[in-house]
Amino acid sequence: MPMDLNDAEVLGREDVDRAVVRIAHEIIEKGDEPDDLVVVGLQSGGAWLAARIATTLGDLPGGCAVPVGVVDVSSFRDDATVRPVPTVWPTDIPVDLTDRVVVLVDDVLQTGRTVRAALEALNAYGRPRAVRLAVMIDRGHRELPIRPDHVGRNLPTHPDDEVEVGPSGVRVRRCGS
Question: Where do the structural domains in the chain lie, given as residue ranges?
Fold first, then answer.
């Protein structure tokens, strides 16, 4: 059921910090070899989150330093005729992804179309052994059969609501009826 809000903070800085630590623990608990992990954030909302997750992975007891990159999916979207193409951001993936476990990171998951585009974009950097999806907010409203492996918070909202995610918190602005 969608939340009844006009403009509200639903997660504060401490909540975001706690979710990042939990996601990092879940990634480690999957049991992959640390040398096989690569964290890749989707430009632009997932970039800061990917960096935070990668840093946290290195800070955990028994943790490890993992390569972190960013990918822009603008040219891989299948809904460019429906939605305006946003600013094109640089893609920087520092390692070959072949046979690696990629943790693909985005701030918000809604329809799944951005993740679909990201999966296609990753192919230019090798063929990963596995791709796992980590998101801070899962809104539902899926149009494609995509499910996150790691979620900071499930947040049912109206499809037209705006969700803003950043290091200092998560806000929802009620736009739909």
Answer: 34-86+109-140
CB 32 within 8 A of CB 101: yes
Tell me the pTM.
0.89
pLDDT tens digit string along 69-118? 999 998 886 666 665 656 677 899 999 999 999 999 999 999 999 999 99
Q: At what angle do helices 13-29 and 45-59 cross, to 10 degrees?
A: 60
140 to 39, 111, 134: CA distances (angstroms): 23, 7, 14
Residue 3 has pLDDT above 70, yes or no: no
Label the pairing between strands 37-42 and 101-109: parallel
In this structure, what token pair is assigned to residue 87? 């600013």
Phi–psi pair at 142, nearest 5 degrees? -65, 140
Instruction: Centre a 10 Å sphere on the Cβ of residue 42 and count the other Cβ atoms it contains.
Output: 25
Give the containing element (helix H, strand E) for 50: helix 45-59
111 touches 143 (CB < 8 A)? yes
The CATH architecture that domain 34-86+109-140 belongs to is 3-Layer(aba) Sandwich (3.40)
Q: Is 53 helix (H, G, I), strand (E, B) or coil?
A: helix
Give the single-character DSSP code of 110: S
Q: Which tens digits make up the pLDDT trace of 20-52? A: 999 999 999 998 888 899 999 999 899 999 999
